[in-house]
Amino acid sequence: MNGLLNWGSSAHWSPDERPCRYCGHPTHLRDERGTPADKVCAEDALAEVAGIVQTYSSQGQL
Ligand SMILES: [Zn+2]
User: Fold this and answer.
1) For each of the chain's 62 residues, which pLDDT tens digit applies?
2) Which helix (H) or strand (E) holds 51?
3) Closest of 26, 31, 29 to residue 42, by C-alpha
4) DSSP character at residue 24
5) If you measure from the C-alpha of residue 2 to the centroid of ligand 1, how many angstroms do you get, rounded to a whole number?
6) What is the whole-number distance in angstroms between the Cα of residue 60 and the centre of ligand 1?
């Protein structure tokens, strides 16, 4: 297991460079929805969401 997403999948790579949705740098990588995103940027965003979910669930709000 390498991070939360399976970035080894060819679905995460495109021959076209597009600006990362998070930082705007050109990238060949795509996130799980096919949106251009660097691996590190997408994993940072996912970690943030996971942290929020964890906070809410520990407060019994989910
Ligand atoms: Zn980025």
Assistant:
1) 446 667 777 778 999 999 999 999 999 999 888 999 999 999 999 899 999 999 999 998 76
2) helix 39-58
3) 31
4) -
5) 18
6) 33
